[in-house]
Write a structure and sequence with these properties.
Strand content: 15-25%
Radius of gyration: 19 Å
CATH architecture: Alpha-Beta Complex
Strand order of the largest sheet: 1-2-4-3
Largest sheet: 4 strands, antiparallel
CATH class: Alpha Beta
Number of strands: 8
Distance between the termini: 40 Å
Order of helices and strands: EEHEEHHHEEEEHHHH
CATH topology: Aminoglycoside 3'-phosphotransferase, Chain: A, domain 2
Helix content: 40-55%
Number of helices: 8
């Protein structure tokens, strides 16, 4: 598998997904067991299998004849939130991978990133939710929506957790504000879901959490591919003021 981190392979009527060695099998199994029988999510059909090459999961292949729209993503997300409101999944734990990456950094750099993480999560814990807590998908975009006939289904359930449901709407909001999707696409997404997070008090905090998560991923990716960290000093200076 070389330097790839996650590989997806077609195998007849199934899709096989191979995660890196060391992936938390219990997490994957808990998510797929909690969502078993879902009408809105493509769940694994058997428990995850650890192998010497990585952790293997298998799900039924979902036929996708075209690219999903943001409106379709909003519609299936709303249905997913409603269907699985009481599912037994772990609480949302943003930036949970920061400690493992910071442990390999110089003490001062690690402390800056940990303090930034703690500050952001403390602020978020004191921020209200208009939609209330529930089960979130964690990685919403049209690329994670597949079609099975006329029905849309969410795939890539790796980040499913229990948290503020607004979190699942923030990715579309970020892309709209960055100019990656136009106003019509964003409006259609919000209309299909039935809510717009642009006025949510927690939006800026979630944006900052996403930014810091990007730093954590870049640290892991550079180490995984043997690249240097010459960019990190500049990032650490920025994170001395997390909010």
């Amino acid at each position: 598998l070389g330097l790839l981190t996650t590989v997806v392979l077609g195998a007849g009527q199934y899709v096989l997904k191979v995660y890196p060695p060391g992936t938390d099998v219990s997490h994957l199994d808990r998510v797929h067991a909690a969502l078993a029988g879902s009408r809105t999510a493509a769940c694994a059909v058997v428990p995850a299998v650890p192998t010497e090459h990585g952790v293997l999961t298998a799900a039924r292949r979902v036929a996708s004849m075209r690219v999903a729209t943001w409106a379709e993503a909003g519609s299936v997300l709303r249905a997913f939130h409603e269907e699985h409101a009481a599912a037994d999944v772990a609480d949302w734990a943003p930036l949970s991978r920061l400690d493992s990456q910071a442990a390999l950094l110089p003490v001062e750099q690690a402390e800056v990133l940990r303090t930034a993480r703690d500050t952001l999560l403390d602020e978020l814990s004191r921020t209200g939710s208009d939609l209330g807590p529930g089960v979130i998908h964690g990685d919403v975009s049209p690329s994670n929506v597949m079609h099975d006939g006329d029905a849309a289904t969410l795939i890539d359930l790796d980040w499913v957790a229990r948290g503020p449901r607004e979190y699942d709407l923030t990715s579309a909001s970020r892309r709209f504000r960055a100019g990656e999707i136009d106003r019509r696409a964003y409006r259609d997404f919000c209309a299909a879901y039935g809510h717009d997070v642009l006025s949510w008090d927690g939006l800026e905090l979630v944006d900052r959490i996403a930014d810091l998560a990007g730093v954590v991923f870049r640290l892991w990716d550079c180490r995984h591919h043997g690249r240097g960290l010459d960019w990190l000093d500049a990032e650490v200076r920025l994170w001395r003021t997390p909010v």
